[in-house]
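Quick one, tokens below. Sequence please?
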């Protein structure tokens, strides 16, 4: 997805650095609140930032930008569609008509120098031409997701000529973006990593403008990608290890442990509780290899058998998802689903027997430290590695691979799942992610139950295990870990 130089960049405002990864080095920007005084210079020519939308990202980003730019003279204004149900919440957080920071979305678009399009993907696909027509000459279009590029590509459309097009894409949900930003007030550098992309740069200021946006959101480090690479990795990741695969995996594991004789609470502990708890914590702090290394010999053998059985079926599904995202099939399915729903809410998925055990398990967490279950660990790590290898085979840069496949999972999404269940997360994520997880989660579940788990009764594949233990992702993750904030996300 990137040429050798596309993930390198320079800045006239910020001091960038390189991160050594397999095959070379990538340029990154290390964030922190000490950089906030540089924001007006990096936002040169921007007097007003318009944030269109008050979904999870809009709600978080508008507040972070406002707080970071306080006293700079740069205004942050929220634009909503007439009659938006979100207006009351925006007002409750200080964006009001009276102080000039809340208005009609098209009016805000017409008056802003940087317009962040943070409305829902299907709505953006339906209304982008209206927004583009309202922009003032030379205004920069900002995105936090590449969905619109995918839609324009499949429909033969394009962005308006003469406008810069940049993206800053936080590698976590909106609540994470805000919560870690607030923690950053006490621990400098706490936040959610972001990728950035420059799709069009008519005035030559796009890189610094994008970096300023990322710094203002509180990103601990920012790496470069392309808008196409971002939407491919992001949408595939949502349907695979971030949401769809993990949902399918915990459902199938719960059934496996119940059939093996475990009661509901014990089976829950060995399935979602294990993945979102000790497995996620080990990966976050010590890396993927540590999950296997910390097991005893019998545990490693169980891990290896599960890993060997799961990797192939999971890799096949990730490749299928990638192809359907790349050719537009997955994006069209989202738009078609939205048309069918016509604004109706989707039914929740948290009705299977597993979720009834969650409250009791969470209530007794303080009583004991849950050990890593070797079989669950092998299945989860194999699923994660399947996505990593698929992205690597499609030439994504290592920063993007580890953020989209590992860091976003263990430092943003899995902590929320640990606090509130995997089903809660799938039922409360973005509409695009929710539709994708609901479409692909059952496919993963069937693959685990019908193909992988029966195969796990046989011996491990020594070649697959050697490939895992020697994999370059461990080097890339170690480099990324040196940039990790010292604080875990607060979910109080």
């Amino acid at each position: 997805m990137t040429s050798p130089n596309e993930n390198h960049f320079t800045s006239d405002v910020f001091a960038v650095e390189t991160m050594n990864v397999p095959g070379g080095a990538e340029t990154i920007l290390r964030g922190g609140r000490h950089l906030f005084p540089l924001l007006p210079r990096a936002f040169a020519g921007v007097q007003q930032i318009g944030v269109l939308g008050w979904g999870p990202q809009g709600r978080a980003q508008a507040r972070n930008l406002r707080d970071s730019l306080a006293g700079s003279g740069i205004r942050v204004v929220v634009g909503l569609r007439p009659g938006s149900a979100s207006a009351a919440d925006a007002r409750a957080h200080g964006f009001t008509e009276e102080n000039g920071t809340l208005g009609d979305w098209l009016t805000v678009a017409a008056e802003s120098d940087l317009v962040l399009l943070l409305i829902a993907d299907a709505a953006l696909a339906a209304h982008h031409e209206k927004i583009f027509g309202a922009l003032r000459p030379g205004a920069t279009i900002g995105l936090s997701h590449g969905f619109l590029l995918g839609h324009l590509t499949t429909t033969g459309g394009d962005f308006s000529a003469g406008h810069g097009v940049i993206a800053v894409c936080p590698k976590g949900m909106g609540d994470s973006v805000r919560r870690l930003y607030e923690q950053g007030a006490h621990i400098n550098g706490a936040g959610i990593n972001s990728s950035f992309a420059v799709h069009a740069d008519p005035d030559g200021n796009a890189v610094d403008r994008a970096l300023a946006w990322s710094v203002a959101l509180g990103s601990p480090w920012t790496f470069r990608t392309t808008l196409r690479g971002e939407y491919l990795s992001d949408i595939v990741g949502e349907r695979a290890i971030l949401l769809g695969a993990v949902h399918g995996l915990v459902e199938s594991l719960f059934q496996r442990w119940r059939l093996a004789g475990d009661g509901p609470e014990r089976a829950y502990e060995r399935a979602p509780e294990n993945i979102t708890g000790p497995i996620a914590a080990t990966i976050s702090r010590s890396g993927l290899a540590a999950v296997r290394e910390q097991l005893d010999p019998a545990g490693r053998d169980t891990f290896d058998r599960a890993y060997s059985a799961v990797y192939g079926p999971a890799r096949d599904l990730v490749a299928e998802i990638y192809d359907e995202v790349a050719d537009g099939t997955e994006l069209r399915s989202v738009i078609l689903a939205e048309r069918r729903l016509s604004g109706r809410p989707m039914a929740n998925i948290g009705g299977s027997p597993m979720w009834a055990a969650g409250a009791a398990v969470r209530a007794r967490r303080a009583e004991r430290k849950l050990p890593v279950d070797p079989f669950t660990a092998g299945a989860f790590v194999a699923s994660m590695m399947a996505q990593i290898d698929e992205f690597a085979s499609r030439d994504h840069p290592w920063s993007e691979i580890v953020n989209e496949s590992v860091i976003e999972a263990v430092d943003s999404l899995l902590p929320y799942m640990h606090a509130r269940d995997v089903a809660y997360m799938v039922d409360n994520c973005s509409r695009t992610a929710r539709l994708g997880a609901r479409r692909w989660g059952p496919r993963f579940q069937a693959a685990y139950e019908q193909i992988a788990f029966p195969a796990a009764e046989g011996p491990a594949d020594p070649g697959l295990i050697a490939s895992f233990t020697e994999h370059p992702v461990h080097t890339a993750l170690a480099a990324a870990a040196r940039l990790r904030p010292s604080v875990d996300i607060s979910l109080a």
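DSSP finds 22 helices and ten strands in the chain. The two ends are 38 Å apart (CA to CA).
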